[in-house]
Amino acid sequence: MCRRDLILRGTFLIGMSQKGLPHLPSEWTAMFSVNDGRFLNYTKIQLSPQDIEYRLGVSGAKVVITDPQNMWKVEEAQRNGKHSNLKKIVVGDGLSAEGWIQYEDLAENVLDADVLSFKNVDTKSDALSQVFFTSGTTGKPKMVGHTHASYGIGHYTTSYILDLQKNDFMWNISDPGWAKSSYSSFFAPWIAGCTVFIHQMERFEPAKVLQTLCDMDITTLCAPPTLYRSMVQEKDPSLFKFKAIRNFYGAGEAVNPEVSVQWKLKTGLPIHEFYGQTETTTIGAPPTQPKKPGSIGKIVTMDLGIVDENGQEVAHGVEGNISVRVKPKRPVGLLKGYMRPGPKGLEVNDEVDCYRGDFYLTGDRGYLDEDGYLFLVGRGDDVINSAGYRIGPYEVESVLLSHDAVAESAVVGYPDEKRGEVVKAFIVRTEKYQHADEETLIKNIQDFVKNNTAPYKYPRKIQFVDSLPKTISGKILRRELKKLGQRN
Any idea which GO molecular function terms this record carries (predicted)? Predict the structure, then answer.
């Protein structure tokens, strides 16, 4: 038990970590506060003050922990007297600011007697432990609720899939706002009793990552496929003489087959892939299982099915909805539900229908072959997966529509060799901007989006159109826009 656990007792948490990818030590301290019956929510640091204000409001957060570089976002989210009772903790030695509590000062003021007398609160297995915001195609981001059982027990499967052992050194490269960060930088290694390796980099440069693997006793690396694409292009053979590595894993998006082949040639080791969602924990196969090109493997962690729109299973080789069987027995690692504010705190939002018959629908498409191997086809919805970031079109479109030049907008994913996908916006201009210089206007709109939401969401490609393809009911036909974008 860490001394600092006591400072967080009796609070809800919403945490932001510093400068992109690095983690703050307070993340692990905060994680232990679930012993007192509280739940955590980590957010991506790229979020705007407006994004943070929304999350503070719907989650009911009582405490925010961040670093000096991001204090201003929290203060901006409190404008006009909002969230005035929020307890604000900053991690940064020597910093003094009105309304903020220094994290290290709190830790130093905890008495040894308090530590010795600390007792965990009895909690129920179905009580909330973690809450994550996940992007969707319509509406605001949804809150995914996980319990002490679904994360504390459910990630035994993650530990198994990652082949973690007691003396391993696990290095997970992911943004602290991801659920992936929570379970691969804490729960799975914690369950296995192995060591978590953290490297504080401003950004992850391929050569530095490879050199770290050569210098340190890291046995397991889990990283976005984007990073593998960059690392495999390094020419210096000395960067691939690893000290202790045993397993490589890719997560967040599919690993390009060409990258997988080149990686195996350079390192002698494959990149193992596994599938999962914020909602489901890990869906995967052990690394010792025989491989099939393009397949995640034969799933052993959950009872998976491919179903049609009515929840009926389809034949082998037929594409359908990737789904998890919840009847007669619900798997431990599945979400408690999508949450919403209620009179007594967060409650399950029964209006979100994610079930068909005996199955939970993941929203992804795929098929099972005759041997039960899972093959992913793609997203069932229109969430854009760019360098591992899931970006909801609605969030980007909402910002675009607040620009004077935008009459209508629609956002889709556009294929990109480096990032997998990038955000592409189709825009119908307002009358005032019909004859504006396109290059200047595109740059202006891109900067506007960067300044009003998380920068990674900005449209790297913009195409001006006279109208948007729609259904009779007015719903945008994104599939038609994707075809149009690829033709142009």
Answer: ATP binding; fatty-acyl-CoA synthase activity; medium-chain fatty acid-CoA ligase activity
Measured CA to CA in angstroms, residue 58 lies from 44, 129, 346, 399, 464 at distances of 16, 16, 8, 20, 35
Distance of alpha carbon 279 from the chain centroid: 11
Residue pair 361/306 in contact (Cβ under 8 Å)? The answer is: no
409/399 Cα distance (integer angstroms): 10
Helix (H, G, I), strand (E, B) or coil at 251: coil
Compute the distance between CA of residue 21 and CA of residue 419 in angstroms, rounded to an integer: 17
Look up tokens 């490269």; give the residue.
Answer: 173
Which burial class, exposed, middle or buried, applies to 260 when counting CB atoms under 10 A from its CB (0-12, 13-18, 19+)? buried
Tens of pLDDT, residue by residue over 359-417, are 999 988 889 999 999 988 766 667 788 988 878 787 788 889 889 999 888 999 999 98
3-state secondary structure at position 176: coil
Cα separation, 31 vs 39, whole angstroms: 8
Alpha helix segments (H runs only) across 132-216: 148-152, 156-161, 179-182, 188-192, 206-215
Residue 116 within any structural domain of the chain: yes
Residue 101: name the closest of 114, 113, 92 by CA: 92
Q: Which residue has the tokens 């196969």?
A: 285
Is it the case that residue 8 has pLDDT exceeding 50? no
The Cα–Cα gap between 481 and 380 comes to 16
Residue 347 tokens read as: 């409650």
Instruction: Tell which of 96, 123, 150 closes a domain.
Output: 123
Q: Is 434 helix (H, G, I), strand (E, B) or coil?
A: coil
Beta-strand ranges (E) seen in 372-486 are 373-379, 384-386, 389-391, 406-416, 420-429, 461-464
Residue 431 lies in a domain: yes
For residue 65, give the H/E element and its range.
strand 63-66
Is the C-alpha dihedral spanning 145, 149, 150, 156 positive or negative? positive
Domain boundary among 123, 144, 163: 123
The predicted-structure confidence for 252-286, as pLDDT tens digits, reads as follows 666 767 788 889 999 999 999 888 888 998 888 98
Dihedral sign from CA coordinates of 44, 48, 54, 56: positive
Q: How far is residue 187 from each of residues 96, 146, 153, 352, measured CA to CA in Å? A: 33, 13, 9, 28
